[in-house]
Every structure is written in structure tokens, then in C-alpha cells.
Amino acid sequence: MSLNWATIINCAQYAFGGEAFEIKMASRAILVPVLVQLLGAAAAVSSPAGRAGVLNPGPHGFSEVLYALSSTGNSNGSAFAGLNANGPVCNLLLGLVMLVARYWVIIPILALAGSLAAKCKVPEVQGPCPPTPRCSSPGWSWWW
Questions:
Q1: What is the pLDDT of residues 34-62, one digit of tens each?
Q2: Which is deepest, 47, 61, 102, 109, by most CB within 10 Å?
Q3: Are the C-beta atoms of residues 93 and 44 closer than 8 Å to each other?
Q4: 54 has which bridge partners?
């Protein structure tokens, strides 16, 4: 690949503008599943049909709902014993949280991979320390 000024400028513009996109995609991959789980917990404890499955009222009941939704979105979908997770509202809510929290991550990660794959290749350099007698001494041997 021959380097000319147009290629260098295009690579520099893409390299300096691409990190913002990559940070946004990584943030979305991390924050959207958490937001879906928290909004699902808020919806579950706000509606009477959602509170019907909670056998322990109060803070422990809220933690049961929050644990059930976060466990469903992130791993195997377990729940505490004080939550009746077999109602129609709970089944629908847990299914939606599972669908969005698990499969949403694919979209920003693929966008992030495409952005990294499209970056310009940077040639390898020697490194921070040129091979001079000062750097070739035994004290610098750990550096290499």
C-alpha cells in the first residue's frame, strides 16, 4: 500500500473521529441492558398485577423483583422463593427483559467490531528505546 497525503489525512481523520463512536457503542452495550432491567423492575412494582406475585411486601419484595429481572437479563433466570414468577405479567416482563438485555448487546458490539476493522493499519515501530549501548545494558534487559 503506497502512502500519499490523501491516505494519511483520511486515516488521521478517521482515527481521531472514530474513538467517540467506539465509546458510544461500548457504553450502549453496557448501559442498555441495565436500564431495561431497572425499568422492568419499576414497571413490575408500579402495577397491581406486577405486585400480585410478590409475597413479601416492602424492600425485600422489591429486591426479589430486581434480582429476578437482573438474573433473567444476565444469566440463568433464577428468582428468590418469595416471588411467584409464574403469572402472565411476570412471564411477559421477564421474557421481554431477557430478549432485550441479552440480544441488544449484539448490535453495538458488531458496530464496534466493524469500526475497529475499518481503521487504517499503522506500521510497526522500533519501540521506545533504540538499540544503543545504553539500552543494551543488563539494566534494560527487562524492557525487551
A1: 999 999 889 888 888 888 888 788 888 88
A2: 61
A3: yes
A4: 83
One-letter amino acid for residue 50 of the chain: G
Q: Distance between CA atoms of 79 and 122, rounded to whole angstroms?
A: 49
Q: From 117, 105, 100, 115, select the one nearest 23 (Cα to Cα).
A: 115
The model's pLDDT over 125-135, given as tens digits with 9 standing for 90+, comes to 665 555 555 55
Q: 93, 40 in Cβ contact below 8 A? A: yes
- Rounded to 5°, the CA angle 129-11-123 comes to 30
Q: How far apart are CA 28 and CA 6, in angstroms?
A: 33
What are the φ and ψ backbone dihedral angles of 83, each rounded to 5 degrees?
A: -115, 125
